[in-house]
Amino acid sequence: MDYFEINGSKTLNGVVEVGGAKNAVLPLMAATILNKGKLRISNVPTLSDSITMSKLLEEMGVEVKFESDNSIFVDSSKLDTPFAPYDLVKTMRASFYVLGPLLARFGKAKVSLPGGCAWGPRPVDFHLEGLKALGVKISIENGYVVADGSNLTGNKIHFPKISVGATGNVVMVAILAKGRTTITNAASEPEIQQLCEMLNSMGANISGIGSNILTIEGVSSLNSISNISVIPDRIEAGTFLIAAAAIGGEVEVTNIIPEHLDSVINCLQKANIQLEVKDSSIVVRSKKEDILSTNIETNEYPGFPTDLQAQWMMLMCLAKGNSTIKENIYYDRFTHIMELNRLGCNIKLEDSVAIIEGDRKLIGADVMSTDIRASAALIIAALCASGTTKISRIYHIDRGYDNIEKKLTNIGAEIFRKK
Ligand code: EPZ
Prior knowledge:
Blueprint: E1 3-7, E2 12-17, H1 22-31, E3 38-42, H2 48-59, E4 63-67, E5 71-75, E6 83-84, H3 86-89, H4 99-106, E7 108-112, H5 125-133, E8 137-141, E9 144-148, E10 156-158, H6 164-174, E11 180-184, H7 190-201, E12 206-207, E13 213-217, E14 227-229, H8 234-247, E15 249-254, H9 262-270, E16 274-277, E17 281-286, E18 296-298, H10 309-316, E19 323-327, H11 336-342, E20 347-350, E21 353-356, E22 366-368, H12 372-384, E23 388-392, H13 395-400, H14 404-409, E24 414-418
Parallel strand pairs: 2-15, 3-14, 6-7, 10-11, 18-19, 22-23
Antiparallel strand pairs: 1-23, 1-24, 3-5, 4-5, 7-9, 8-9, 11-13, 12-13, 15-17, 16-17, 19-21, 20-21
Helix pairs in contact: 1-2, 1-7, 4-6, 5-6, 6-7, 8-10, 8-12, 10-12
The chain binds ligand EPZ.
């Protein structure tokens, strides 16, 4: 299996361009199921997750072609099988996004329940309860959700906890249900905003986009659109901002939407990281010795994203003084702590709160990736450590970052992918 070999203690200098958002392209690809049509999706990141979603769509009869200019051409006119098999769904939880559009188009669907992930169970009860509220009959048979949605009717839906995936799935059904649906405690993440905007451009009637209350007037049919461009990946952008802050130097992170990163910018500035925020880029100027310890809590958008928690934890290991991180989205998303401690960090966990000792001197070691974002934190740590680090199981990183080693090498890092 591939691994990364990283030589630490180099500063970073230069420009890094961010790609399209993984967590936007996946629901957009699922939404192509909704009606027969041909769509070009541009600014698509080359990630194993985008490829997994394309394989799932092809399994159902959709034609998906990856083109050289980071775009994909999707033709869903021959889609005839509302079935998503376990062997594909188990590799990527976001495959569950196909449930809603299959129900909306065919009135029925059979989709495998997703597996868990590195940091524990990730239930789909909110998805199922929301769909039942719209009149969908659901049974669980041999690990599959078997759904009958022949009589979709709008309703009032309240999510007990904000859920990105459940909001996306339920919206993609409600837009073709009879009557009005209101969703309270809906997700307002930029990726869900883009999904709702795409659906409206297809003829749906969704209002409240960007808030936690969505009102959907059901329509009888949708029209096709010819193209859509994926929004920039705010998590990839935040990862590079934190990397530059931790490693030191001057780096401009380009092709971003700064307001999608307001909470991260705010925390970096509290940690005394010098930022220059421009229209579509941010310049980080960091002297490592100046980082101030800053406590954070992860929250739903626009709060500090859980997908940058591991990377932030790494930064705080270098800060002056101790700090804490409270993880409010996934109480057990801490598998990276043990690996970071192997590199010389000193992090403890008490009741879903990480206590991070600052001023640590990191020393290269062999470590193991456990999930996409933990891998990013380990790469940052390795670049801050003295000596060489070997990171195994880097298939995790390839799920969420497009050619990260090339982007880092271009700004001065010594990182090599090896067999
Ligand atoms: C999306 O996952 C993202 N993935 C995750 O990014 C991200 O961490 C997460 O949202 C939170 O922002 C994609 O968009 C593909 P949720 P999702 O439903 O939709 C609980 C990455 O690294 N919950 O918003 O699966 C759940 O356990 C990935 O890019 C239920 O209890 O997350 C969690 O505690 C990791 N029942 C909370 O809600 C449900 O039915 C939020 O989960 C659904 C969720």
